[in-house]
Structures are given as C-alpha cells and as structure tokens.
Amino acid sequence: MKSNDLKDMLGRTSLTPVKQAKHILLDALRATVRKTESCPLSEALDRIPASDTLAPVDLPAHPRSTMDGFAVRAADTFGASSSMPCYLEIDGDVAMGQMPEGTVTQGKCFRIATGGLLPAGSDAVMMFEHTIPVDEKMIEVVKSVGVGKNLTQRGEDIAQGSLALAKGQQLRPQDLGLLAGLGIAEVEVYAKARVGILSTGDEIVHWAESPPPGKIRDINSICLSGLCTRLGAEVTDYGIVSDSEASFFATVEQAAAENDVVLFSGGSSVGMRDLGERVIEKLGQPGILVHGVALKPGKPIIIGMSNTTAIFGLPGHPVSAMVCFELFVDPAIRCISGISHPEKELRPTVNAILDRNINSAAGRLDLIRVQLQERDNELPLAVPVLGKSGSISTLSRAHGYFFIDEASQGINSNSQIKVHLLS
Amino acid sequence: MKSNDLKDMLGRTSLTPVKQAKHILLDALRATVRKTESCPLSEALDRIPASDTLAPVDLPAHPRSTMDGFAVRAADTFGASSSMPCYLEIDGDVAMGQMPEGTVTQGKCFRIATGGLLPAGSDAVMMFEHTIPVDEKMIEVVKSVGVGKNLTQRGEDIAQGSLALAKGQQLRPQDLGLLAGLGIAEVEVYAKARVGILSTGDEIVHWAESPPPGKIRDINSICLSGLCTRLGAEVTDYGIVSDSEASFFATVEQAAAENDVVLFSGGSSVGMRDLGERVIEKLGQPGILVHGVALKPGKPIIIGMSNTTAIFGLPGHPVSAMVCFELFVDPAIRCISGISHPEKELRPTVNAILDRNINSAAGRLDLIRVQLQERDNELPLAVPVLGKSGSISTLSRAHGYFFIDEASQGINSNSQIKVHLLS
Lengths: 423, 423
Known about the structure:
homodimer; Molybdopterin biosynthesis moea protein, domain 2; Molybdopterin biosynthesis moeA protein, domain 3; 6-stranded mixed β-sheet; 20% helix; elongated
C-alpha cells in the first residue's frame, strides 16, 4: 500500500510517519540492481566493494623476525640464564630483503634484524638484549627462548583464503593497506551514485548573480550538492528552472534519465507543490511513493521513483530541505552506493543536557537544531537555535540536532538528549 | 627544552610522554606562518576560511511572506473572529520574484504566496486558511493577526555586518549555503597542507609489484596517503627509497623543500633508526624535536622540523605507523590546514564495555584496537583485536581503539571505556 492512499475522515491525505516513509523508499531502492566497476587500488579510498575479498596469499609469505637479534633453534637455549649461560656460534647473517642462504644447525645461530626472513633450521629469534658478544663468532645467551618467539608466522597476519574485507563496507585507509599487502591492485566496487540537482521558482537566481529586487539567491543547490559530495556521489547541477510546467518537466525528465537520484527543491507556492506531484506522476512507474511526512520541518516532501531513479521534491526552505536530505536522501544515496546498512545512523552523536523546555505536537517527529556549550566535568549544554525554517544561518550556527519523537509532546529543560553532530 | 635532552641516571635518552610530545610539535607549528588563497565558493567545501566573514548585506533583503495568504495592515484585522468577521478588499497581487507595485491601504489587502515580498503599507500576512472568499474582490477574515506575523523581517536570517562564519572552521554544506545566500562567491582560505610520503627499506617493493623472495609489499604509503587525503591534504608519493644514506637524504631533502609535512616510514633496523635521526639533523634547524615517546605501539617515532616543514620518522610496522599518525601527524596536518583547534579529538567516540582484562605498563600510553559488538539495551561490547603491530589485518578488523593512560597498569574486564571510532 502506498502511503498516500491513507486518507483521514475528511478525505484529506494524511501524513506518512518518517519511519514508514523511509522503509517505503529503501524497499523500493533495494529492489533495483546496482552497477559495479573495476577501480585501481590507488583510487579506491572511500569506495564500496561489490564483493567479499578473500586473501589470495598468506601474509606474510614467510616467517619474519619481529626483533633485532639472532635466529636460533629454541631447544639450544633451553635452561640458559645469567648464571648458566649457553653459547652459540654465529654461522651467518640474514640480509634484509633477501631469502637467507644456509641452515641454522645445532649450537649455531644467524644474525637477523627486525623484518628479516627466518633461515631454515631456526624456529625462534633471541633478542639482542639477551645476549653478550664473546667474540666475532660467538655469543653468550643469558635467557631461554620458546619455539615461535619473536617472529611472525607465515599467514599470521591473514591466511590465504580467509575473508579479508566484506562487501558493502566503505574502504578506509587501513583497508587499502591490507589490500596493498595482499597485492590486490584492482577492486570491484559499486558505481558512484549520480545525483542531479535543480532548483525551481521564478524568484530564485544563481547565487553568483546579483538578484534584482524581489528575487533571492539560490541557497539549496550548493548546500545539497555539498551533502551529496560528502557521501561520495557524483553531482550534476541542472540549474534553476522556471515554474512553467513544460520546462520543469523537461529538465526533471532529462535529469531522471541521467541519474540515480534527482533532487528538486523550491516551489513552496501551492501551484508549485501540485506541479511537483504532477511531474513525478508523468514520469511513469512506480510514481509517487510518499507525499507529505509527519515531520517538522520538512512536512511537504514528495518522494517518487521513475524506473530506478529516486526523485525527491524537497521543500524550498533551506532548513526543511536539509532535514529531508538527512532523513531520506542520505540513506537513499548510501543504499544506491552499495553500503550494507544505509539506514544506520551516519552522524556521530553526543549526549547533552537541554537548556529549556521545547514543545512539540504529538504524532509528528520534530528535529531541533542546537548549539553545544562545553562544560567541565558535565555533559555539554544544548541550546536550541531558534529561527524559521527559511533561515540558513540557523543551520550554519547549529552544532547538531536532536529529535522529539512522535509519541512526545515536548521535552523538559534539563533532560538528557542525544545530539547528532553536524560536522 | 627539547624532550630529547631528558636523560635518565644511566645517561639513556628517556621517552617523551605523548601529551608533551604533541605540545612540542604543535607549539613549533603554530609559530609558522600559513599561506592563504582565494577559492571560488563552488570549490570551497571542506576548506578552512582564513578570516572571519561578516554579512555584507541583510538576508533577506526585504520582508517576505512565510505563508500563502494576504498581505494586510494588522490593525484592520484586530477583533476579527468567526462570529465577528471583518471584510477586506483584494486590491492587488504580489507576483513571485518581483517587487510588488502599489500600497496596501486601510481596509484593503494583496494576495501573496510564500516567499512573496511584502507590499508597502502592509505589516502582516493573514493565512489563507483564516479567510473565506466572498467574491472576486472581497474576503471575510475570521481571525486577527499581529504586526509582523507570518513574515520574515529584513535581516532576520542574518543582519548586515554581523559575524556569518568564523575563521578556522571547516566549511560544511550549510556554511556554503549561507555564503551563497549572502552572495559571497569567493572565500579566502588557507592553502591545503602538502604532504610528501616515502617508504624506506631494502626489503620493501611497491604494492603493485610481485615481491621476489625475501621482500614484502609496501603497506604504509597507501594507508598514510589515505589518512592524509581524508584530512584534505595534497599528497605526493616519493616512492620507496633504499637504505643508503645518500639516496635517503636526497629524497627527504627534496620532499622537505616541496611540502609542509614529510612522512617517512620503515627502517625498523637499528642502522635505519640512526639514519632517520642523522638525516633530520642534517636538514638543519630546528632539527629533532622528539625522539621516542612513551607509547605502545609507536614508541620509536622521530619528530623533527626543517625550517617550517614538519618531518616524521614513523615506525615501519603498519599499526605503529597509523597510531603515530593518529596522535601526532593528524593534529599537525590540521594545524597546518588552519583549523582553530587541531588538538581537539577528531574521531567520534562511543562508550563500550571491555570484555576482558588488559594489562599495561605504567608510564606508557597504550592504544588498544577493538571490535564492537552491538547489544540490545546495553552499551556495545568492546573485544580487543589482538595481534602484532606488524599486522595490518588487525587494523582493518578494528572498529576503533581506546587508550590505557600512563598512570594505569591495566583495565579490568567489564570496565566502561571510551572507544574512538575508525570510520
């Protein structure tokens, strides 16, 4: 059932709860097939692997010393102590970066440095600190060493055939390090999400222009573009489109054909709201998924799909647009990018104490912007940033936000809240 | 006083505490002058402004309606109710994106949509929902409205001359939105930090090569490069340098001349450690700042400066190298990038419960890698990822890390710990 089939007793379309709207959206996106591509390791930072990676080799490929000292047969040192030392003959040197030649035989040892390969016959490394040189060819050993001590076994870091990296997890620097160590020079990753952005409204001009009287600069495009870029998406800006249905439809149609996600914002007038709805319906199946959510700010969002492209009609007010991005567009882009758990909270959170009472209407999710004031030995104080949803400065001043959920009619001063950080 | 002047009673150089080493490093860096450059707003995401930004204009420039309805003189509606409505004549329309013509006079009103500019004479907007159309030219008003209601005042979002953005704070998408709204098309930002990276060691080959017996693939370069890239730095890879003093010195000297930061890693052998120290000393003043810190893993780090370039000799083991990056290179790069509080914890943290006892030596900061296991209605369980500091897979498996501080000899099972997330 589509959420917009829900009508109340007066025949008005009712608002979809946020959680339900997100489920409808992600269920629709999960049903689509994602493209993959091969990516050189040197460009794979933050990309999402499309398959599990098994280690193709043992790492390390040979046992290696983790200490400076002497490669020994452990049994030769058993019982050695300061009062009862044993003596070993230095029979060779392990050259760095080369396979050692020769074999360590009973009563003998090879000099070895950290990272050197263990020579045949040896099974432990005696630390330099536990030896006393007798002469050029002989050491006194004042401590025993166990088999396997002070070395890394073949495959100890990771064994051939075992799971190195799981699919669907963003590649971090240390993951690239592991792939480099295994010699994996290409990774199969999901294609980057492509996002088309347009602003609508006859009153909007590009931010680089000087607006004539009555017009205002476009704020949403650059803000939404930055949010998409931070998620690793490739953004195309389709500019500012007038309120005429023909030009608006043509641009959205083109953007839908060229992208995985289309964001249009603005059009807060009644006529424009209807226009957004009509354009999504005209683009074909599956059409509108959600129209209006029980959310403040952000209520008038429209979510639809045309083939496999998700289309979002975002409110024109910058704060409302960004809130809708956080709650719906962000998980959608992460889902399309191949992240395993796109619905999982992305932003880090901190606990804080609310500095005043905040009222809310029951049945609606409220998102409240806050500034945080650090305090010694106490949780930070969260001070709501008040202001209209058209005020971009309130978002820029905010350090984060918290939610008042649908069941609540408000939160009292001094309550502990969980603040999602806008870093 | 340089930390390496500290010697113990036996004349050995003692280890510098982590906190002190960081202070020495950041004090030296803060004394250097940072370059700035002009950046177009469209490329300014995540850059660091080099000066405070004051609003050059009022935003919005004119009072605007926040509702669909009628621009009115509030006094005309006083006392209006369902039982005692008042009547207003519709005397004009506010066209979207244009300066309204005409003046609202007593007993009259103009049609206006959300975002429309308030016409002269009006001082409030009557919501559409509180009116009943009488005919084409007349509405019945069933509720009074106060002066200034349902509109945004000139400069209400941000007033001309007030602080829009502070210097030294990374530009977030919403900050770009604010600058766009103010028509600021260029931002003065700090130049990106330039980082030169090289690996040393005769046993190291590039990760894309197939290592001959005895050699291993370079893991640190790609891992360190990814960490720098995520901090917004520009990375130059100087490749793998042999252990010979001449070629090593020549490469480090070139990298120091071309970058703000030089990272070399590897050279875990005794000879190589001395070489790193000699090379930094040879590069001139101020020379070595810190040699060896009370840290595990990461103890053998060397921190120096040549003119204004910070030079880090990192341990060869990947885990040790990354730990040293976290604690020293990361704040250094953020300081050079112009961030106001580079020493502030960058990574988000979560509280967790440790699943076993972990021992530590007093007088040393220990960094313990952990995996987190989510649990219902409880803090997540932190399971230490055990393994040698040469094991890159332990870093890749880790979700984060926690510290055992210098005063502690260990942490007991079931203790609550603060885990820094490696996302």
